[in-house]
Amino acid sequence: MTDTSLSMEHPPLLYAGLSDPSPENRTIRLLRSHRSIRAYYPTPLPDGTLDAIIAAAQQAPTSSNMQAYSIIAVQDPQRKQELMTLCSGQKFIAQCPLFLVFCADLSRLHYVCARQGYRYRAEHINMLIVACCDAQLACQNAAIAAESMGLGTVMVGDIRRRPREVAALLELPRYVFATVGLCIGYAATDPGIKPRLPRKVILHRETYSAEHLEEGLEEYDRAMIARGIYRKPFPIELVEEGAEERYTLETYGWTEHTARRVAELSHEERKGSFITFLREQGFPCE
User: Fold this and answer.
1) Class level of CATH domain 35-191
2) What pLDDT is attached to residue 99?
3) Which of 104, 105, 155, 265 has the fewest CB atoms within 10 Å, counting from its CB?
4) Residue ranges covered by each domain of the chain
5) What's the pLDDT at 6?
6) How many CB atoms lie within 10 A of CB 237?
7) Sheet with strand 176-185: strands edge to edge
8) What's the whole-model pTM score?
9) What is the pLDDT of residue 137?
10) Which neighbouring-strand residues pair with 40?
11) E-state strands within the chain
12) Residue spans of the chain under pLDDT 70
């Protein structure tokens, strides 16, 4: 009879030679050191950097190995400038030497289905979610890979603000749209690590609970105010027409800032136009 007690108490670790079971290993330290970099030196990246980052991105988890995403590497200064304009004028897009655009891509699945002589039947919203998740996971892997090389990164959600213009600029075919951008380069500034919500707000054990929500939000507001994270409040007039500012830098925290972001008046018009765009691109929204 084989004695399995040793293997049960000390199961083998995966990734021989690379794993470190300690709770503060190098990978975890890297992940906990993330900060968004919004200013870059124009210094080109070393040869091989792009390939290494993409190789890491491609090993991200993917639903049923469908790999329903594509990555567009943008290094041309003029194209980066145009993307900057389409993304609310965020200057770091033009500054960084490498801008990656991660696209939800169902075009390959349509192609292989037709190639093999079948009718494509996955016309439901779950496939939109699959493609978006695949693209976002690949983006996160790319960011971690870049940061492991000492490079700075910032993700750009504004790539979705003017989706038609972005699709035209990047020549995206039907069944493809840009989900997120990623700036990569040498950091010209270091903003430091931004505090996150208390773990008791994020981590729920066994079942969902809002027991610590209010307490955690108050703690987080105090932490963000103490760090001076929000030096410029989100304009109240973009949330309520004719409203007057009722917060100061000493009282304006995460809850007020985040509430204003999701209450912005422009969400009303963007909601309908984005769904229309997705349908035009062939993505199921039901």
Assistant:
1) alpha beta
2) 99
3) 265
4) 35-191, 199-263
5) 47
6) 11
7) 69-74, 98-105, 176-185, 152-156
8) 0.92
9) 99
10) 187
11) 69-74, 98-105, 152-156, 176-185
12) 1-10
